[in-house]
């Protein structure tokens, strides 16, 4: 990773990402007329989620991947070294439990890495991570809709 790439994550960034993940879940859940609640009843489920790894994107490196010869070199480098080529990455662990019995209803451990198809998201430091939040929120909503 180039020396100019900021690799540390600040407390403010973590707080902002936490709010964005909660907002993504709230928005996705509300599309099916579910509501989020702090109360445990026989008609509620508990969601526990943890983002266990965050890797910010590098928009400059990601954008360079679209240049014909540079893109080929970056792709070869990604294959050889296992790097993400400027794409952001995140890993989540989440489970949905019956609020009363604490029986597991659904669980997921997943990793999302941005791709060159996610052009718009790749042009910001946290765009791919925020896209992952939206995808995981949809997956969670689909799980509780069954």
How would you explain this protein's 3D organization?
A hairpin with a 5-residue loop joins strand 2 and strand 3. The radius of gyration is 18 Å and the shape is elongated. The protein has helices spanning 11-30, 59-64, 68-81, 119-122, 127-145, and strands spanning 45-55, 89-98, 104-113. Helices cover 43% and strands 21% of the residues. Helix 1 packs parallel to helix 5. The chain has one domain: 3-Layer(aba) Sandwich (Rossmann fold). The protein has 146 residues and is an alpha+beta fold. The N and C termini lie far apart (43 Å). Strands 1-2-3 form a three-stranded antiparallel β-sheet, covered by helices on one side.
Count of domains: 1
Structural class: alpha+beta
Give the terminus-to-terminus CA distance: 43 Å
Kindly report the spatial arrangement of strands forming the biggest sheet. Answer: 1-2-3
Name the CATH architecture.
Answer: 3-Layer(aba) Sandwich
| pLDDT averaged residue by residue | 81
Query: Which range does the strand content fall in?
Result: 15-25%
Q: Mind describing the biggest β-sheet?
A: 3 strands, antiparallel
Rg value: 18 Å
The geometry reads as elongated
Top-tier CATH class = Alpha Beta
Helix content: 40-55%
Low-confidence stretches: 79-83
Q: Please, how many helices?
A: 5
Order of helices and strands: HEHHEEHH
CATH topology: Rossmann fold
* CATH level 4 superfamily: ABC-type transport auxiliary lipoprotein component
Number-wise, the strands total: 3
